[in-house]
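Example A, followed by Example B.
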Amino acid sequence: MSEERIDNAFSESGTLYQVEYALEGAKKGMSCVVVLGDAGIAMAASKRVPEKLMDPSYITSFFSIGPNTVGVISGYPMDVQDTAMKMKKKFNDLEYELGQLCPPDILARHMSDGFQILTQENSRRLTAVNVAIAGYDRGKSALYHTDSSGVLFPYRGVAFGEGAAVMTKKLERIYKKNTTNEEILEIALETLTEALGTDYLATNVELAILTEGHSLRRIATDEIDSLLVRIAEKD
C-alpha cells in the first residue's frame, strides 16, 4: 500500500491547488464581520446549529484569546476549534517569552507564519479557516486578518466566510470613522445581514464588542433584535 500524500507543489499553471481548495473550503464557514471603532471593536457572525438537540451556546465564531485579544474564526468546524486552541496556546507561550501580554500583531504574525509553513509541506492537510485577530496594544485598537495561505494584512474592517464578497461591498460603502460603540455594532450587524438575506432571526446571529481593559461582551438576543429592527426601518 503506497503512502498517501498531499501534493503542495506548484502546478504547470503556477497555482497551488491545495491552497485554493483550502481557501474555497474556508468560504463555506460562518459569515463574519469585524469593525474597528474609536472606543471599541465590534464583531458579528452568523450562527447555524447543525442539530436541534445540540447546545447552541457551544456554537461560536468568537474566542477570547487573552485579556485584550479576541480571535474571530470561520471555516470547517473542526479546523475552527483546532485553530482557536492553537491560538490560545501560542498567546500563552509568547506571553511567557516576552514577559508581557502578547500584542495582537505579534500573535497574528505567528499564526500566519504557521499557516504559510503548511503550504510548503506535503505531509499535512492545510487548515481551512479565515482568522481575524483583534485587540489592543498600548491603548490602540488593532485588527489583522489571515487565512490558509498565510497572507496577513491589517484592516479597519473586514468580512469573511459565506457571502464575503457582498458583505465586503456593503462594509466599504457604510464604514465611517469617528464612530461610537453603538454605531460600529450597527455597522457590523448591517453588513452581516447582506449575507444572511431576509430569512434570519436574532437567534441566528451573534454580536459582541471588545473595549480596552474589559473582557469580550456578548450582546443579548433582545438587543440584537432591537438593532435588526432599526436597520430594517432605515432601509
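Example B, a separate protein, is given below in the same form.
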Amino acid sequence: MIKARDIDGITALHLAARKGYWGLVSYLLRINPVIPAEGWTPLHEAVEHGHAEVMAQLLAMNPNLCFAKPKKNPYYGQTVLHVAIERGHENIVKYLLTIRPSLIDITGEHGRTAVRNEKLVSLLLAQKPSLINILDDDGRSPLHDAASIGCEVVADMFLALDPELIHGVDNQGTTMLHAAVGSGKSKWAKRVCGMIPDALYACNGQQRTPFRLAVTSRSFEMIEVLKWD
C-alpha cells in the first residue's frame, strides 16, 4: 500500500509531503526509500505548500528530484523552482538556487524561464540578469509577458537592464504595443506607444494593428489613447 498510486499518480508520500508531516515522511521513507521521481513528485507537493523542512528532507534523499517536470496542468513542464516562484515562497527559492544554481536555466512549458513570473523577479535577475533576453518557443521575451498583463513594475525592471527589449517582436508579429493593448490597461499602452510610436502601424500575424485590436475588443478608453498617437 505504501507504493500504491491513485488515478492521478499520487502516493502516500505525496500526501504526507503536501501536509508537511515531517515525521510521517520520515516513516514512509524508512519503509520505502525510493521517492517517485517522474512527473509530479512529492517534492513538488512540499514546495507548492511551502514545507521547507520536508523539501530539504526529500532532497537529501534524492538531490535530482528538483529537476523533475510534471506532465499535467497546472504546473505542466515546470520544475520545483517554477512552482516555488509561482507560490511566492522566497525562502524556498533561495534554498533551491543555493543548492542547485543550474535550476535557473531550466525552462518550463513552451520554453519559458522562471523569470516570467512577476513574483520574485528581482531575486532572479540579481543572480542572472541575462534571463530577460531568453526567448521562449514562440519568440516572446519576458517583456512580452509583462506587457501583456500590464505589469509596469516588472516591465520597468527589464527595460532598465536592456532598453532595446521594447522593440521585440515575436514569431506571430506581436509587438510590445500589441501586447500592451491586449492587457487592457490604457495608461500602460500609452506609455508603450510613446516608446515605440512606429508600432502603432505594425500588423501582427493576423494582419491586425494595435488600434484594430482595441476596436475589436471594444475598449473605448484604449481607442481614445491610440487614436491621438
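On Example B: Residues 81 and 96 are 7 Å apart (CA to CA).
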